[in-house]
Amino acid sequence: MKLYGMGQSRSFRALWALEESGLDYEYINTTLRTDSSENDSAKHPSYLELNVQGKVPTLVDGDLILTESFAIVNYIARNAPNSGLLPKVSTPTYAKLDELSYFILAELEQPLWSKGKHMFALPEKVRIPAMFDTARFEFDKALKALDHLLGETDSDYAIGDSFCIADLLLAHTFNWAIRFEFDVPNKYVQLRDRHYQRPAAQRAMAVVE
Ligand SMILES: N[C@@H](CCC(=O)N[C@@H](CS)C(=O)NCC(=O)O)C(=O)O
What we know:
- The chain is of the alpha+beta class.
- It has two domains: 2-84, 3-Layer(aba) Sandwich (Glutaredoxin); 91-198, Glutathione S-transferase Yfyf (Class Pi), Chain A, domain 2 (Up-down Bundle), CATH 1.20.1050.
- The protein is built from nine helices and four strands.
- A four-stranded mixed sheet has the order 2-1-3-4.
- Helix 1 (11-21) runs parallel beside helix 3.
- The longest helix is centred in the last third of the chain and has 20 residues, at 131-150.
- The relative contact order is 0.14.
- The model has no long low-confidence stretch (mean pLDDT 96).
- The protein binds glutathione (GSH).
- The site of glutathione (GSH) has 10 residues, from loops.
C-alpha cells in the first residue's frame, strides 16, 4: 500500500492506523499549498489523477484508490483483523462505533476545519476572520454532545475496554484542536496524551517529523 500524506494533517490518521495494523506500506510525503509544478505537490497533475481535490490523504492499494481519511482507516482495519482496530463487538455496539465516528467527522472536526479554512486554506479574498468565533462556538457545542455520546465511564477507551479506530480518530481530532488553539477540556487533553503515547502513534510521529 502507498499512503500519500502530510505531517499531522488528516493523513496522520491513516499513517497511525497503518502502524497499528502491522501491514507493509510506503509513505509518500506530499506538500500542500506549494507550486503545482513541484513533484511532491498535492496539486501536481499526476497527484490530481489520484485525488481530484488535491488533498491528503490518498491510499493506493493495487487498483484501489481511496481519498477519505476514515474510509482509509476502516480499510486498513479490515485488512488487519487481528490488530484490534475494529473491536469484536455486537451489532448494536458496532452501531455506536459508527455513530461516534461519523459524529467526529461531521460535528467535532468541522469547526476545526472551518478555522483552518479561514486561517490559511481558502483563497485570501474569501476568508472571513469572524468565522473563528463561530468555530469556537460550534466546537463547544460539539464537546457537550460528545460528553453525552461517550457517557460516564471509567474506561480509557471509547468503545468497550480496548483501543479501536474511534479512539484513534478522537485522539487525532483533539490533537488538531489543541494545535489550532481551541479550548480543549483537560480530560480530552489527557485522552490525546494517553493514546499518542502508544508505540504505533510514536512510530507514526517519527515518520512525519
Ligand atoms: N474529508 C477529507 C478531507 C481531506 C482534507 O481536507 N485534507 C486537508 C489536510 S487535513 C488537505 O489536504 N487540504 C488541502 C487543501 O484543502 O487544498 C478526509 O477526511 O480525508
